[in-house]
Amino acid sequence: MVKSISFNNSTSPFRHSSPARLWFVAYLLLIGCSFAAFGQQRPPSAGAQHGGGRSAVAATKARESGQLEEAITLYRQALNVQPKWSEGWWYLATLLYDRDRYEEAARAFKQAALLQPKVGSAWAMLGLCEFQLGHYDDALMHIRQGRRIGFVENPELSRVMRFHESAVLILKGEFETAQNTLSTLSSEGLNNEGLIIAHGLAVLRIPVLPKQVNAAYRDREMIRRSGWAAHLHAQKNLAEAQQEYERLATDFPKTPNVQYAYARFLTANREDEKAITAFQREIENSPNHALARFQIAYIKLRNKQAAEGVELAEQAVKLHPRLALGRYLFGRLLFDVNQNERAIAELEAARGMTPNDARIHFALARAYARANRKIDADKARETFTRLNRLTEEAAARGVNQASAIEESPAADAKPQSP
């Protein structure tokens, strides 16, 4: 693993002596060999002009013998002569990364990525360097770009990148999207302190980076316990997860989002009455909690009790009018209680905020059809079919594009064609 993921019950960065850190850097160096599969330029020959080939050969020998500073100097010399040598840029970047020289490493990884744009590892490592530099928007963009392209025979790098992507999403307030990705890591058997802390931040909706939650962090124990409950849930250890959530709700009854986290666990496991009670406790603690209202309304929709959910959803929309999937949920409820014109208005508002969500177009196709707007219904149906296909293709590559309720409750994430 890399720095922000630790195996020693700490969210602190790896030290250079850490076996996990050394293993990861060695792993990156091995990836350099995979560039040959993409047809990029090989190392310069020994007779290349101005000694570039000799520098390349010497750089390889220095790297393989552990003389890293000398290797960095020699790779730079070789790349001055052969600037399109993408494998050389990769090795230079990896060595700079190992020395914590992230700004220089980012520039080198960017050169490797631009020369070989179909190599996902280069984009992902650029994103990881940007993460270490605090350039989080760029980091998220490039990590996602790397993941979309994919990591050939590279599951470990994929896990590292998914963790860092989730960390940035937590910082940006996209908690449920982050939690979905963290849950896949837990389900794959990953188990370390950084992951547990990240889970806790996501379920409690605290927008800080996992590495900031050190031993002195005020709410660290509560965050860790919440994360442990979420981790158990993701690993389908439901009985222990429920015990942990119940203890949390008892020990921190008034702390923001503890009741909400417990209620979401109950919702996921179809304990609807208990979930509603916990969401109501969250609303008592935080009267302007829009998401707790949306979640109760969603349970009502799921249980075909739409009339009981309309008022709560309307209150939530007033509290949080820019939440696209909240407007979608309100529109669904209005449709089910035969307020079709209002439903169309809410669904169109949701579409304007999130035009690439297949669920919204599915619901609009039904509402337009009920209003005898055949052209609009056909267009919405075609858009739904196209977006749903893209979502399924992305899911097959391990890229989670669907949203949950902050972005939505997930039950209707894959509707059938209208």
User: In the CATH classification, which architecture of the domain at 325-418 applies?
Assistant: Alpha Horseshoe
Task: Report helical residue fraction.
Answer: 55-70%
Overall mean confidence score, pLDDT: 85
What global shape is seen?
globular
Order of helices and strands: HHHHHHHHHHHHHHHHHHHH
Structural class: mainly alpha
Spatial extent as radius of gyration: 25 Å
For the secondary structure, the number of strands is: 0
The residue ranges in which pLDDT falls below 50 over 5 or more consecutive positions are 1-20, 38-51, 402-418
Straight-line N-to-C gap:
45 Å
* Broad CATH class of the domain at 325-418: Mainly Alpha
Number of helices: 20
Strand percentage: under 5%
